[in-house]
Amino acid sequence: MVTEMTKYSFILPGEETEGFLRKLQELGVMDITRSAKPVDETSSTMLENASAEKKALAVLDKADWSEDPDAEEITAAASTEDVIAEANGADPAECAIKASERLTELAEALSVSKKKAAKLYPWGEFDRKAIEGLKNIGLKIRYYSVPKKSFDESWAERFPLQVVTDDGKTVWFVTVCGKDEEYDFPLAECTAPDESFIDAEKEKERILKKIIRTKGLLLKLTERRPEIREKYDRQLTELDLYLAEVSGESAVENRIVVFEGFAPAENDAELRRRLDEEGVFFLTDRASVEDNPPIKLKNNRFSRMFEVLTGMYGMPAYDEFDLTPVLGPFFLLFFALCLGDAGYGLVLVLLSFIIKKKMPGMAKLSPLVMTLGIGTFFIGILMNTFFGFSLVEQSFIPEWLKKCIRPLQGEVEGFPATMVLAICIGILNICVAMVIKAVCYTHRFGLKDNLGTWGWTLFVVGGVILGGTALFGLLQSEVIKWIFIVLAVISGLGIYIFNKPGRNPFVNIGAGLWDTYNMATGLLSDTLSFIRLYALGLAGGMLGSTFNTLGGMLMESCHVPGLNWLLFAVIFVIGHALNIALSCLGAFVHPLRLTFVEFFKNSGYEGSGKPYNPLSVKKDEA
To answer: By the number of CB atoms within 10 A of the CB, which of 7, 60, 466, 598 ranks highest?
Structure first.
């Protein structure tokens, strides 16, 4: 099925484009398009004001300090007179933004202060004036740090040395001597501390108090969120209306960038929350057909494997049915009939494991290859072929299985049973396609404009069902005759009279006659196209059997023990490897052709949608 999409419109100044795209890239669910629209000074100011309110709301939404280690101090700060006076100012949004910026700066300053204090901690508390006094009397202090295991106690006997800190791993110490004295200490000096650890601690405390006050201010400002929200909504409405009014005007020097994006409706709650946290200015609306939203398919595990085939033809339009759930079973059946060998099915299953383990770039195709292999294995058994050998001729095959195989090896009214089966499958495929077309067109365009489509669907599908009923003798011939007459009358009215209501009846009749010619020739050729399912399976089976015969002839002509089996194995492996390659190619191309031409044509499938391609970090890095 086609996933419902939500349309997002983002309006922002051009200089913020790069940062905005990076945010969307991190979210990874937005399929984005871009356009530029002219603005004047008025709309530019409106955008700036609305963006400020949006940013302020995002800041205040995060102003929850209940888990903060200083929660009590922050709450107390929010009740102080100076904080209350500042919070009750004229512009709460501007105050919140400035407080947030100041809080960021203070947090960085606190981090720097903590690192500085940690670096000064080993040198402890000292008096800078006393240090300067030593310098004035001609003494020089040198600072050292050395691992504990490298510290030599004998240094204290040769130099005036004082250990400041010893934490068991590192030793910090100083030496004192005259400036003019000979000095040859065996270690290089480290950088002298520029201030006392206590001074750094006091600075850290001052910054922390400012942070607590700023958080208290933001906490107090949260009381004005309803006021900011009301103002933001009002500005949003005014800006939307103004942009609609000036959208036809010529561009001036200033420009804004308008981004239009689509995301699955199922992600709305999380996406809006994240955008609100980032303070992004956006509008949302339910995507419509006119918006031409990108298409994301949502199917079960089985159908999802065949989405790659749908994508090869084209994604469905937004109001169109996703035919993948119907395409999948039919394509699997077509492929299995064309390949038609149970042994080849096992080879595909083995190949799927190799693809998954050894080919990371193609790993997504592994489940599809395995499914096609399993389907081919079971259909191949019914087709009586295992690496070119006939299963019914093998003594180890149970009798019940042979009874299941034999009906398909016989004839129906002088025609091979497998060929009749292929034709029946084709008829079923076309009937399903016509029903889908009638339902889909009614959903998209209404019943009134699709009476002709329903007429043909009723006549063809009803006729097939009625013919099957007559073939198996489920109803008396007289009953079947009257049902057919009623069916023909109702269908005829839709096809020839009401195919386009409101049009001249004679024109409708003429159009109906033309449709009759096209349907008669088209349905006949479409049905006969399914004979390829029988022909390809037959050709592959005969070629495999031929390689087996060649290998057997070489084995019988060679009388050297062991060599005869080796020759048979070489012919068997090479021959079947070639046959598998050719058969798999045909088993993929021809079912694909039956799907794209016969099935999609009769189902009215357009495939005009564009695939969902969200902006994401992973895709960008690739």
So the answer is: 60
Q: Is the pLDDT of residue 403 over 90?
A: no
- Helix/strand/coil for 163: strand
- Report how far Cα 584 is from the mean position of its chain's Cα atoms: 30
Mean pLDDT, to the nearest integer, of 482-502? Answer: 83
E-only strand ranges, 148-211: 161-166, 170-178
> When comparing pLDDT for 235 and 428, which is higher?
428
Q: Which residues contact 209 (CB under 8 A, 6 or more apart)?
A: none
Q: How many other CB atoms sit within 10 Å of the CB of residue 81?
A: 7
> Which of 309, 243, 310 is closest to 47 using CA atoms?
243
- Would you say 280 and 11 are in contact if contact means Cβ atoms under 8 Å apart? no
Tell me which residue has tokens 């700023």.
214
Indicate left, alpha or beta for 608 from its phi (over 0: left) and psi (-120 to 50: alpha): alpha
Percent of residues, the chain, with pLDDT higher than 90: 7
**What mean pLDDT, rounded, does the chain reach?**
83
Whole-model pTM above 0.70? Answer: no
SS3 283: strand
Would you place residue 252 in the very low, low, confident or very high pLDDT band (cuts 50, 70, 90)?
A: very low
Helix (H, G, I), strand (E, B) or coil at 280: coil
Token pair listed for 487: 């069916």
For residue range 511-545, list pLDDT tens digits in order.
Answer: 888 888 888 888 888 888 889 888 888 888 888 88
Please indicate whether residue 591 or residue 33 has the higher confidence score (pLDDT). Answer: 591
Q: What is the pLDDT of residue 248?
A: 37
Q: Helices in 446-476 by DSSP H: which ranges?
A: 451-471
Q: Hey, what are 108's tokens?
A: 């960085």
Structure token pair of residue 121: 């901690």
CB atoms within 10 A of CB 293: 26
Calpha distance 483→472 (Å, rounded): 16
Q: Which pLDDT value is given to residue 253? A: 43
> How far apart are the C-alpha atoms of 50 and 286, rounded to whole Å?
23
Burial class (CB in 10 A: 0-12, 13-18, 19+), 162: exposed
Closest CA to 494 of 526, 527, 462: 462
pLDDT at 187 over 90: no
Cα angle 236, 33, 300 (rounded to 5 degrees) comes to 105
Closest CA to 3 of 202, 196, 186, 266: 266
Nearest to 185 by CA among 227, 205, 156, 165: 156
Residues with Cβ < 8 Å from 249, sequence gap 6 or more? 38, 40
**Buried-state track 238-250, b at ≥16 Cβ within 10 A, e below 16:** ebeebbeeeeeee
End-to-end CA distance of the chain: 29
Instruction: Tell me the backbone φ, ψ of residue 168, rounded to 5 degrees.
Output: 95, -20
CA 288 from centroid of its chain's CA atoms: 21
Please tell me the predicted confidence (pLDDT) of residue 293.
Answer: 86
pLDDT over 60 (residue 245)? no
Rg (alpha carbons) of the chain, rounded to whole number: 41
Q: Determine contact, residues 335/590, Cβ cutoff 8 Å.
A: no
Burial 134-159 (b: 16+ CB within 10 A, else e): eeeeeeeebbbbbeeeebeeebeeeb
Q: Which of 116, 197, 185 is nearest to 144 (CA)?
A: 185
- For the chain, the maximum distance between any two Cα atoms, rounded to a whole number of angstroms, is 133
